[in-house]
Design goal:
This protein is an all-alpha fold. It contains 5 helices and no strands. It has one domain. The mean pLDDT is 86.
Length: 156
């Protein structure tokens, strides 16, 4: 039982670190190449109307979510937001794969070198990790509530 707690703790911490790294790296890459990022968004038939807003909004959201992972009180919210972001990015990739001609990837850095199919798999892995992190965090909350109720029962 104790080993399981340590194991889930380290898995949870690893997931948080991966998302911190992913969102920080992606946001910084987008901000460094902000003009290119905006121009690529303008080339998208689905996002061109919102290119300026997305060029600044997406990196801001990514940085905000990455910072939320540093707070134990906000970590579950950060995992839910990560799941939502990854689902939205994956839906966009899926729509591009099935309905668009050639659209440049508006991601930054090394991630931009992935093909659309590789990008889809990458995102699916992070969706799985966010879901796993949510399950672990929720089970931790249940365990804390259970221990607290046992503590209260012992006092009363």
């Amino acid at each position: 039982m104790v080993f399981r707690k340590y194991k889930t703790y380290w898995v949870s911490e690893g997931i948080a670190l991966l998302f911190i790294f992913l969102f920080t790296y992606a946001a910084i890459s987008k901000l460094i190449e902000s003009e290119t990022f905006r121009l690529q968004l303008e080339q998208s038939p689905f996002l061109s109307s919102f290119a300026w807003l997305l060029a600044w909004g997406v990196p801001l959201i990514e940085i905000t979510v990455a910072l939320m992972f540093f707070s134990s009180k906000l970590r579950l919210v950060a995992l839910y937001l990560s799941l939502l972001l990854m689902i939205l990015f994956t839906v966009y990739i899926t729509v591009v794969l099935f309905f668009a001609d050639s659209i440049p990837c508006s991601c930054g850095g090394v991630i931009a070198s992935l093909s659309w199919n590789e990008h889809l798999v990458f995102n699916l892995v992070f969706i799985f990790l966010a879901g796993l992190g949510i399950l672990i965090k929720k089970s931790e909350h249940k365990e804390i509530k259970h221990q607290f109720s046992r503590f209260k029962a012992g006092i009363g």
